[in-house]
Amino acid sequence: MNSEWQDFLSSTGAQIENGIMQPFNSPQQEAKTASGQTTITALSHLGLIQVGGADAASFLQNQFTNDIREVTDNSSQLSAWCSPKGRALACFRLFIMAEHYYMLLPASLVASTRERLARYILMSKVTLEESSNKLATMGVAGPEADALLNKLFTTLPARTNEVCHHEGCTLLRIPGPSPRFAITGEPVRLIALWSTLSSDAQPVGSDCWRLLDIQAGLPSVYPETVEAFVPQMLNLQAIDGLSFSKGCYPGQEVVARMQYLGKLKRRMYRAVVDTDAAPVPGDTLRIAGGDQGTGKIVDAHPAAQGGYELLAVVEIAAVEAAEKICLEKDNEAILTFVDLPYPVAESES
Predict the structure, then answer these.
(1) CATH 3.30.1360.120 intervals, the chain
(2) Residue 212, CA distances (Å) to 86, 140, 179, 310, 317 in order
(3) Contact at 8 Å (CB) between 20 and 13?
(4) Helix, strand, coil percent content, the chain, rounded in steps of 5
(5) 155 by DSSP, 3-state: which?
(6) In sequence order, what DSSP letters do the residues of 60-120 get, joined into one string?
């Protein structure tokens, strides 16, 4: 986290631990706040990798699952980077700011992703730089997000994935249960924004953004789940995070074979679970009473009503057979599946 940004947040009463802004209240209470009020948060759990150089576009096109030719000054996209075996190493949002590409992804993966990507540069004119210490990112979400930001900016991104640029910052419209914006830019610019918005929007901890991602059905990959899933398991084909016409990238043959010749046995579902054993990314799921794993947690967050909301990759056959699926570490914690906010076509699963 940028030191100027961190010092400012601390001066407002925020607690920062290991670079992450902590909840201002209990996670359950913050979940209630996020469900009905307009909130602001520092997206300190996310980091940035800047990609530049004359060959940046072609380099990224040859690495990622999505067609980056569709990333423009006015449009961002979800994408993933895979191993040669077609397993997701990272899942991120890609956008352009000040003539550079930026990858917005979990901060815990920034260093390893940059280092691993750098091995593929070879003779290409490409630079990869961690930018989390130079820039700041904040989130604004809730029913009044549009109205509050309209007072401060002449234009806003109108549709999901759209991008707008203003002096010192870039706004990205992100899918969510209510209007949601990620704002990246110079720390001094975001400090001024926070100071203005905090009189009308409720500050919450960074993890609330993860809850909104869960509710939107947007997957993340963390160190605990690197290479755990192929892109289709994360529903990327259903949320415009995967192109089947763009050409080659690491793992492309495996991903294409799964789409056209294979049958996907697992995919991502949204669920709630009542438990005191907090689920975390990478936790194993199994059929109650059994001893064989049937899925993994993608992400989880305390729910407003108690228990946890989560995303999990689960065996499709087990869900369709209405099997009782539980946390491996709590046999009584049975998942209740709830609808995702987007369809996953039968041909996609």
Answers:
(1) 3-216
(2) 27, 11, 11, 11, 28
(3) no
(4) 25, 30, 40
(5) coil
(6) HHTTBSS-GGG-BTTB-EEEEEE-TTS-EEEEEEEEEETTEEEEEEEHHHHHHHHHHHHTT
Both tokens of 25, joined, read 């209240």
Q: Residue 163's closest CA among 241, 102, 91, 81?
A: 102
Strand partners, 330: 327
Rounded to two decimals, the pTM is 0.95
User: Which residues sit opposite 64 in a β-bridge?
Assistant: 81
Rounded Cα gap, residues 30 and 343, in angstroms: 28
One-letter amino acid of 99: E
What's the CATH class of domain 265-349? Answer: mainly beta
What does the pLDDT profile of the chain (349 residues) look like in tens digits? 999 999 999 999 999 999 999 999 999 999 999 999 999 999 999 999 999 999 999 999 999 999 999 999 999 999 999 999 999 999 999 999 999 999 999 999 999 999 999 999 999 999 999 999 999 999 999 999 999 999 999 999 999 999 999 988 999 999 998 999 999 999 999 999 999 999 999 999 999 999 999 999 999 999 999 999 999 999 999 999 999 999 899 999 999 988 888 789 999 999 999 999 999 999 999 999 888 899 999 999 999 999 999 999 999 999 999 999 999 999 999 999 999 999 997 545 4
- Residue 71 CB contacts under 8 Å (≥ 6 apart), including other chains: 77, 94, 95, 96, 101
SS3 187: helix
Q: Where in the chain is the domain with CATH 2.40.30.110?
A: 265-349
**Three-class DSSP category at 189:** helix
CATH of domain 3-216: 3.30.1360.120
